[in-house]
Design a protein that fits this description.
The chain is mostly beta strands and 66 residues long. The chain has no helices and 4 strands. The strands form 2 sheets. The protein has a two-stranded antiparallel sheet. A two-stranded antiparallel ribbon has the order 3-4.
Length: 66
Amino acid sequence: MAWATTKYLGCAVSQNCADMWYAVCHYSPGGNIVNRRVYEIGNPCSNCPVGYFCDSTLLCEANTRF
């Protein structure tokens, strides 16, 4: 789960034993803060920063089109 303010996300998966898998994700800036909301309230893409657009999955995406 990533927080509303998450800008960077990286995950990895590893098989340690024959039938055990481990997954770990790191994200920044950090989250999991007591009494803070995971998501911002509002319509999808209603708060995209300048230089971003609303993609087909209703997420803000950096505008890298020139």
